[in-house]
């Protein structure tokens, strides 16, 4: 179904922060989906492989698009042209995953990361996501203008003032969405 090929774009472009929590094997299409996410976490026992050439296809799920952006062109080509399996520590070393957690603590650690994200200012979080998406498409000069406009807009929000006050008062902020 051609619609399945849009999943990486939807994961990458959606306004919400997306997290791939890899607990086991991550190969082929699953690796494409994981690479489309904003953050990738793995258990220590997770295993990775692009696998496409092993089954006679040239890749899908936008992996030839996302891997070079994540790892650089040389490493992306290496992983795609010579599809060897590798473990979570190697995935972290090359920058494919942000964090590797002990298998027993994985759910708790991923949940803690999600909780931390949900405690952030919703406006700042969504603006940061838009900034990353725009930075992928724009030159630094044009991006700097957009970033500055958004930055100044955040300073007009009650939530931003609340975040600063909470930081000074050493307490958790109470965001209202305004």
Could you please describe the fold and organization of this structure?
- There is one protein chain.
- The protein has 178 residues and is mainly α.
- It contains nine helices and six strands.
- The chain has a three-stranded parallel sheet, with helices on both faces. The protein has a three-stranded mixed sheet with strand order 2-4-5.
- Helix 2 (29-36) packs across helix 3 (63-71).
Topology summary:
Layout lengths: L6 H7 L5 E4 L2 E3 L1 H8 L2 E5 L3 E3 L13 H9 L1 H9 L4 E2 H6 L5 E3 L4 H13 L3 H16 L2 H15 L3 H12 L9
Parallel strand pairs: 1-3, 2-4, 3-6
Antiparallel strand pairs: 4-5
Helix pairs in contact: 1-2, 2-3, 3-4, 7-8
List keywords for this structure.
single chain; 178 residues; mainly alpha; three-stranded parallel β-sheet; three-stranded mixed β-sheet; 6 strands; 11% strand
**What is the molecular shape?**
globular
Which range best describes the helical content: under 10%, 10-25%, 25-40%, 40-55%, 55-70% or over 70%? 40-55%
Helix/strand order, N-terminal first: HEEHEEHHEHEHHHH
End-to-end CA span = 41 Å
Q: How many strands appear in the DSSP assignment?
A: 6
Beta strand %? 5-15%
């Amino acid at each position: 179904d051609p619609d399945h090929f849009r999943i990486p774009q939807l994961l990458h472009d959606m306004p919400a922060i997306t997290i791939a929590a890899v607990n086991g094997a991550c190969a082929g299409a699953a690796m494409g989906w994981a690479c489309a996410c904003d953050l990738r976490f793995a258990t220590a026992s997770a295993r990775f492989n692009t696998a496409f050439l092993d089954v006679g296809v040239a890749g899908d799920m936008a992996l030839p698009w996302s891997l070079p952006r994540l790892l650089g062109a040389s490493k992306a080509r290496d992983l795609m042209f010579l599809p060897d399996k590798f473990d979570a520590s190697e995935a972290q070393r090359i920058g494919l995953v942000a964090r590797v957690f002990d298998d027993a603590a994985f759910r708790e650690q991923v949940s803690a990361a999600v909780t931390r994200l949900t405690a952030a200012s919703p406006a700042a979080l969504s603006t940061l996501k838009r900034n990353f998406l725009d930075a992928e498409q724009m030159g630094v000069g044009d991006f700097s203008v957009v970033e500055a406009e958004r930055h100044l807009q955040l300073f007009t929000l009650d939530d931003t003032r609340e975040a600063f006050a909470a930081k000074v008062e050493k307490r958790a902020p109470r965001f209202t969405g305004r």
